[in-house]
Amino acid sequence: MQALSFKLTRYMAILGGTVLIFLITLTCISIIGRGLNGALHGWLGSAFPTMSTWLLSAGVGPINGDFELVEAGVAFSIFAFLPLCHITAGHASVDIFTSKLPASINRVLQLIIDIMFSLVLIIIAHQLYNGMLSKQRYGDTTFLLQFPIWWAYAASLTGATLAALIAVYVACIRLAECIFGTNILNIELKASS
Question: How many Å is the Cα radius of gyration of the chain?
Fold first, then answer.
């Protein structure tokens, strides 16, 4: 189970990273196009009117609907990274106080945190599902590109569902760690990587 969980979270994070690289490239191209468009309407247009007209008619400018794609893609990427971050305990933590506590108390605290986190992720996934159904039912689309908004919800729901499942899995392992008094998850991650 642990090897499968770790592989799934890795593949989801790679997919999220690929989407993020695409969005970064898209944003850079759009910004360059926006700058060129402004220059072609300004000083370049005055200096080189024929070339400027030709480039503008060829479509040099910002990418239409880039912010809509970035909005949907970043939401997906966040949920795609969350499962790997959680299973590897990559979340930021402040342990000034807890570092002085015994290991058994820290295990109980970690169990409580992981149970709460899994509940929150289940609620988020459920709300994304309801939102997706609502957007699908009403046929909402984005303003410029006119793609259905529920697509973005469905993509984010995929990552949120995996994150919720991984969070429940981690909470179960934390419970076993409390019962047996040992660190199981760290051993599992070393064995599966």
Answer: 23
